[in-house]
Amino acid sequence: MANRIQMKNPIAELDGDEMTRVLWELVKEKLLLPYVDLKTEYYDLGILNREATNDEVTVKSAEAIKRLGVGVKCATITSNAARKTEYKLQNLFPSPNATIRAILDGTVFRKPITVSCVKPSVSTWKKPIVIGRHAYGDVYKAAEMRIPGAGKVEIVYTPADGSAAQRITVADMKAGGIVQGIHNLDESIKSFARACFLYAINEKLPVWFATKDTISKIYDGRFKELFNMVYETEFKEQCAAAGISYFYTLIDDAVARVVKGDGGFLWACKNYDGDVMSDMIASAAGSLAMMTSVLVSPSGVFEYEAAHGTVQQHYYRWQKGEKTSTNPIALIFAWTGALAKRAELDNTPELAAFAKKLEAATLKTVEEGDMTGDLALLASPAPAQRLDSWEFTDAITKRL
Ligand code: NAP
Ligand code: MG
Fold it and tell me: Dmax of the chain from CA atoms?
């Protein structure tokens, strides 16, 4: 191992839970450590260590990502009542992803990994569609009320400086019904736009953004205005230099174009649109195990992970001694994404080339018919056999 590729600066490594923790070790041992002298700052976000550190480790790991500029994260259990019993926990902590996202103020981008033998359900799609979802406000931070009977519903703004309140009528209701109040913040919308343009320039993808501003002239109108302002004042030249365009349209027009188009763009979505459309894209593109996810902060910090969870059911089978056929591809791509970003920031072309080679070897392995069970179900032609995770990583090593 004397002539392994050297790294200049470390990346933050966030270990996780269950089957993905098992695969994390496997990927490092078989596909990374033989070739790269890995430099990482290691944080164990496994559920028991989060418990033991009173969740301090999650905060520290987010701070490390901020400091180092690049992080890679394994899937983690979000604790709930069932997990509390299962792992004998004293506390229920928030989802690590939510904690990290709050500290980095980031936007999450999800991108499918495509292989030639798995065709998307939408036959016109030739290139992946990446979703960037605004993760603040709107219906996810709504105030709702059930209205029991006739009466007036108003929105009242009471300025903090003591000046006169402003009010408008939502509805003069003749009978009972429902109301909802939602909000967003100028700064959050601008951060979202910045993260989208940073990601798009990095990936050389055109940006689409859509709202319903013809109907919602003030609310969605403000989204359109701020997104456009960030583009015009901060990113227009960089986009031109990267050869990418910015396209705004109405959300229904965008949906129609997405289904008819050939893909290959970043679709910036408001919170609810992103929630719904990312599941549509993921399922139309194939398997959850073929979806990568990257958190981009407006200050230019990147955290890479697989979009899937800890694959709990496979883990229980692995604990009983079964060699499960769990797909490690999204985890591999989380590592290659992080290593390539590190290489770009440090100007280490050897490391960048390695990340590319590992991705190419992984895709080639699947395209030549060696794959795990989830893909074997979708692939055409169907492979002769399905490999377990260990056989699959060995098959990648052969190509690497
Ligand atoms: P999941 O772990 O994504 O698994 C759901 C199902 O998808 C699996 O049972 C499996 O289907 C299939 N699948 C997912 N990844 C796969 C892979 N790499 N290879 C093969 N099949 C794969 O979601 P979950 O069961 O809802 O959640 C389990 C735990 O993960 C929960 O504790 C949750 O809190 C956590 N979670 C964490 C994150 C994160 O850290 N980013 C995200 C989501 C969920 P089959 O069983 O049919 O094979
Ligand atoms: Mg959803």
Answer: 80
Where are any strands of DSSP class E within the chain? 5-6, 11-15, 36-37, 40-44, 70-73, 107-112, 129-133, 143-147, 151-157, 166-173, 177-181, 207-211, 246-250, 265-269, 291-296, 302-306
- Tokens read off for 8: 């200049």
Please give the structure tokens belonging to residue 321: 């001694």
Buried b / exposed e along 257-295 (16+ C-beta atoms within 10 A): ebeebebebbbbbbbebbbebbebbbeebbbbbbbbbbb
pTM summary value: 0.88
Question: Atom 41 of ligand 1 has which residue's CA nearest to it?
Answer: 75
| DSSP letters for 95-153 | PHHHHHHHHHT-EEEEEE---TTS--SSTT--S-EEEEE--SSGGGG-EEEEE-SSEEE
144-159 tens-digit pLDDT: 999 999 999 999 999 9
Closest ligand to residue 387's CA: 1
Any ligand 1 atom below 6 A from CB of 308: yes
Grouping H, G, I as helix, E, B as strand and the rest as coil, residue 14 is: strand
Cβ–ligand 1 distance for 76 under 6 Å, the answer yes
* Cβ count within 10 A of residue 156: 8
Ligand 1 pocket: which of 293, 308, 318, 327 to mutate (most atoms <8 Å of CB)? 308
Q: Is 325 in the pocket of ligand 1 (CB under 6 A)?
A: no
| Distance in Å, CA 98 to ligand 2 centroid | 15
Minimal-distance CA residue to ligand 1 atom 40: 75
Q: Is the CB of 230 under 6 A from ligand 1?
A: no
Task: Say if ligand 1 is within 6 A of residue 292 CB.
Answer: no
pLDDT digits (tens, 9 = 90+) for 169-214: 999 999 999 999 999 999 999 999 999 999 999 899 999 999 999 9
